[in-house]
Write a structure and sequence with these properties.
By secondary structure, this protein is of the alpha+beta class. It has 2 domains: 3-49, no CATH class; 72-160, Winged helix-like DNA-binding domain superfamily/Winged helix DNA-binding domain (Arc Repressor Mutant, subunit A), CATH 1.10.10.10. Helix content is 27%, strand content 22%. The protein has a 4-stranded antiparallel β-sheet with strand order 1-2-3-4. Strands 5-10 form a two-stranded antiparallel sheet. The chain starts with a helix and ends in a 12-residue tail after the last strand.
Length: 172
């Protein structure tokens, strides 16, 4: 690497002229305007760069990091359910757990990303329409699941996926 190029990368020189010209302008707000142009002055590529931008290290990823996917079953809420078919209800919730959106409890389809409809829930659970709709009705009465404007949401009192800033806020 020649000295002029290393001086450019160190920040002591603002222009490197070779086959392509690399220029840097420091703006009053701290950003740097960097452009790449030909020797005739035609700009080939340009962008703004903030050298003082802090990298956020405490942001939780919305995936499992190549580990097995997981959800949290809230045992206290499950024990409080007073109905005969508690096992069927929890089985349906676990079957839907792969379609729960991180930190919100909304039921979504992954590809294409959209909110689940009742017909989608029938396919996922694998029961007949009448049995699934009866179960959904009972789950709404027990406030396990609620119908929002966009789609369905499962209460975090029973199952939770992710534990970010909104954890516990949608709880009934």
């Amino acid at each position: 690497m020649d000295n002029l190029l290393s001086d450019y990368f160190n920040g002591s020189v603002n222009v490197y002229a070779g086959n392509l010209v690399v220029g840097r302008e420091r703006l009053p707000n701290g950003y740097e305007y960097i452009n790449l142009s030909t020797g005739e002055g035609t700009v080939v590529y340009e962008f703004f760069y903030n050298p003082r931008k802090k990298v956020k290290k405490d942001v939780q990823p919305k995936h499992c990091g190549h580990k097995q996917p997981y959800v949290m079953l809230m045992l206290h809420g499950i024990r409080e359910l007073k109905c005969k078919n508690r096992i069927e209800i929890m089985g349906a919730i676990v079957a839907l757990s792969d379609n729960i959106e991180w930190n919100s409890g909304m039921l979504i389809q992954k590809r294409p990303k959209r909110f689940l409809k009742s017909a989608d829930i029938v396919k996922i659970i694998g029961w007949s329409k009448s049995k699934t709709f009866a179960l959904l009705k009972q789950m709404k009465q027990l406030e396990i699941i609620e119908k929002a404007d966009e789609g369905y949401r499962i209460s975090e009192k029973y199952i939770r996926k992710g534990a970010g800033k909104n954890a516990g806020k949608n709880q009934k």
